[in-house]
Design goal:
Blueprint: H1 13-16, E1 33-36, E2 39-42, E3 63-65, E4 68-70, E5 74-76, H2 93-101, E6 107-114, H3 131-146, E7 151-156, E8 174-175, E9 185-186, E10 195-196, E11 201-202, H4 208-224, E12 229-234, H5 239-244, H6 259-277, E13 282-286, H7 300-314, E14 318-322, H8 336-345, E15 349-353, H9 358-366, E16 372-375, H10 377-381, H11 385-391
Length: 420
């Protein structure tokens, strides 16, 4: 009778490091056999994840992010789901259930949340500018904390990616420059379908400090709502990204033109938010080579290397880098030169994001290319994603038709292990 497979749940390094092969075995199968507590086992027939324990698995080594201890390095990426309660864009019990289901993440970064009515770009996305929204988010943070989790809020202003129908008093959306994003679309209500974004209005110089205060107000409200920290959204073609990148910022004042000027407004936002939260509880998201929402930069290595250096000076805890995206990427694969420039300029934590498998995440963490990895779509369909990765269990498929808007279907009804 051949040796049995190693039982699921047995911690491999108890016997695997060093490998103790059976000295009595002399056939070609010897390299896959070992003894553990008197029993001969077949390594290759192990039925679970037989490579490593949590101590040796890069994804499950504990980590301190700023001053926040994380039990693992699997981050839930911010994911727009468009399921806030109406009217008022208010988080509610359904959202609390969704996030609590995913509390096993090392950290949840909650979905992009508009810091003001002007910052809204899509129907049904939540805000963090009203008392009702703060109370709604408090339901979410309480549920996550009771489930043992940690959660940051992503602070968002969409800039030009909006429509007058979504803006206060039907105003035109704002941007650094009056450049219409080709191909960019949004949805304005449940029946509109996707509609084209129009040409925005360029912000006056004197308006920009007021938008900085919108971020400050949102950051303060996130504290009131019980979050563990915040992430500033400076990616994916939204307002701060529009100021950073040369393709969308054609201004000739102190907020445009030179690289230093293009970084000025985003760094003002960083300063305002860290004054509320402190650097150790503040992060930022960037997408240096992302093309979503008609974005590009003439020299992303120089732009994001300089930005990373200035962010290092600010004392923030982390940069989350969208390295690759199903929504579009100018690079072929991960932009390694940009990633190196960010890593060289920023001494804090780097979170890799974008089309990661568990194995690639482990490899890049071990290689020092990032410290943590954020997963998006796998968390949508796998509320217990960390446990599935721990066991090398199969993943549920996601349903793209239910990503944005709707009810509990495709939101809180994906099964965890043992429920299938």
């Amino acid at each position: 009778m051949p040796p049995p497979a190693l039982p699921v749940g047995l911690s491999v390094p108890e016997w695997y490091f060093p490998i103790m092969r059976d000295p009595a075995t002399r056939d070609s199968q010897a390299d896959s056999l070992c003894r553990f507590r008197g029993q001969l086992y077949d390594i290759e027939r192990h039925q679970g994840d037989a490579r490593m324990t949590d101590e040796n698995d890069a994804l499950f080594r504990p980590y301190t992010l700023g001053d926040l201890p994380l039990p693992n390095r699997i981050i839930m990426a911010p994911l727009t789901r468009s399921r806030s309660k109406q009217p008022g864009d208010i988080p509610w019990e359904l959202n609390a259930t969704y996030y609590a289901q995913r509390a096993g993440a090392g950290l949840i970064i909650a979905e992009a949340t508009q810091v003001s009515p002007q910052g809204k770009g899509y129907a049904f996305t939540p805000g963090i500018h009203s008392d009702d929204q703060v109370a709604g988010w408090r339901k979410v943070t309480t549920a996550v904390h009771e489930a043992g989790g940690r959660i940051h809020l992503q602070l968002w202003h969409v800039g030009r990616i909006s429509r007058p129908e979504l803006q206060p008093d039907g105003a035109r959306p704002v941007a650094p420059s009056a450049i219409r994003p080709e191909g960019a679309q949004t949805f304005i209500d449940a029946d509109s379908g996707m509609v084209d974004v129009l040409e925005p209005r360029a912000l006056d110089t004197g308006e920009i400090p007021g938008i900085v205060e919108q971020y400050r107000h949102g950051a303060g409200n996130a504290r009131r709502a019980g979050f563990d920290g915040v992430e500033i959204h400076a990616a994916n073609g939204y307002l701060l990204d529009q100021f950073i990148r040369s393709g969308t910022n054609r201004r000739d004042d102190e907020y445009g033109g030179s690289l230093e000027n293009r970084l000025r407004f985003p760094l003002m936002v960083v300063e305002a938010v860290t004054q509320v939260w402190g650097g150790e509880r503040t992060g930022i998201r960037v997408s240096p080579t992302g093309t979503f929402n008609d974005m590009h930069d003439d020299d992303p290595v120089a732009t994001y290397g300089a930005f990373a250096s200035r962010l290092d000076d600010s004392g923030i805890a982390y940069i989350e880098v969208v390295e690759d995206s199903f929504q579009g990427n100018a690079a072929s694969g991960r932009p390694e030169a940009v990633i190196r420039a960010i890593r060289e300029g920023f001494r804090g934590t780097c979170i890799g994001n974008g089309n990661y498998s568990a194995d690639e995440a482990r490899e890049r963490i071990d290689a020092g290319l990032c410290d943590l990895v954020s997963f998006g779509r796998p968390f949508i369909s796998n509320p217990d994603l960390p446990e599935r990765l721990r066991r090398s269990a199969p993943l549920n498929d996601w349903d793209m038709a239910t990503f944005y808007g709707g009810d509990e279907h495709g939101y809180t009804d994906y099964p965890a292990l043992g429920q299938q």
